[in-house]
Amino acid sequence: MKEYLAKKYIFAAIFIVALYAVSISNFIFSFDTLKTDMKAAKENVKTGTIDEALDSANMVIDTLDTSINSNVEHKFKYVELYGLYNKVLGKYEHNGFGVIKDKNGNLFNGNVWSFNLINEAPVEQFARRVYKMNEKFNGTDTKLYVLSMPVRTSKTDVDVQPGAFIQDYSSVADSYLYYCDSFNLECIDFRKAMKLSGKEYDELFFKTDHHWTPQAAFESFKYLVEQLKTDGYDLDPTGQYTDINNYTIENFEECWLGTHAIKTGVSYIDKLESITILSPKYETDFQYKYKYENSSYINELNGSFDGTLLRREYIYMQQNNNLYEGSAYSAYLNGVCEHDWIVNKNNPNGPKVLFIRDSYSSPLGAFLANVCSEVEMVWAKEYKGSIEELVENGDYDFVFVATWPENLGEDSFNFYLED
Prior knowledge:
By secondary structure, this protein is of the alpha/beta class. The protein has 14 helices and 13 strands. The strands form three sheets. Strands 5-4-13-11-12-10-8-9 form an eight-stranded mixed β-sheet, sandwiched between helices. A three-stranded antiparallel β-sheet has the order 1-2-3. The chain has a two-stranded antiparallel ribbon with strand order 6-7. Strand 11 (352-357), helix 13 and strand 12 (374-379) form a beta-alpha-beta unit. Helix 2 (31-43) packs antiparallel against helix 3, helix 5 packs parallel to helix 6 and helix 9 crosses helix 13. It is globular and about 90 Å long.
């Protein structure tokens, strides 16, 4: 018995020593980052009431906690080791059902803990806020459209392993569109564009990333132009901009990790992600300004579509083995910025558009810019200004409220709140 307890004590001692060693190593590794974040957090500390002081203290704690968790020495080696462990065991779930792998090797967000939360989104309130926005355009020529992005789910129910649940927001999208329609809002459901495209599932969605592909975005661009034409707005009278033959198509095979695969590591997935990009063959000339979230600096690019709205360096960075940094999907409009301004110098008489959006709208907005004079895009979730002021002070021909169903939350509809 004494020998048994001695072994337990020795193991416990070794474990504690190892734990402290790893903790100290990580502290040293992340010290410079922690010092920088601490300095920035202290500058934002509010003084005044007790509540304000507590909020500031919580903000500092959250900042440091995020920094520590994000700056772990050899972090991705641990990720790869854990991913390999799950793959060897043949597990279809990763990290407590945080990520689900279906029988085709596609990765999805798991839906165990949030199962009941999906259908609890107050979508009627969100539709009402969009309706209030639309009321501001009464008596004007501005036309508002609700754009609903497609829901990425497995091809069929039988492709999901028994006992696994993936996040499927189809019912939420249906409810949101139902209420928007009840408020007489013009709605465009891009799930219809996916069905009409005639393309295979793997052409429309990535295997390890939650986004749609540039091909899917282009099909939705075509569908949007067609729907606007039926309403009397012909943005492409010659058909040049919606003809796929007028675009160069390039494939980049197995060169990056999608958002889900970054969590699981390369060792867990069947192969790296591929991406196909589309760029115009016809002449283009754009001014593109953009501002990242939490930044006051406005960047500017000028030139053709390929080099401004489409930037290949995001793909090349991934090809150079920086798999855990950035995303090839960001090749269009930097993935998502807090605020974008696009001016099409070749189409000064085209419509002026406001896009209230999330990251799904980036390739769609890039393609749409070819038939517009100006496209202004704001990421509702991160926008620090007032969307209401943009709406009421801007002179837009179209306003698109575009949302990926999984983003149907309060932070995506932080405008025209209920009294």
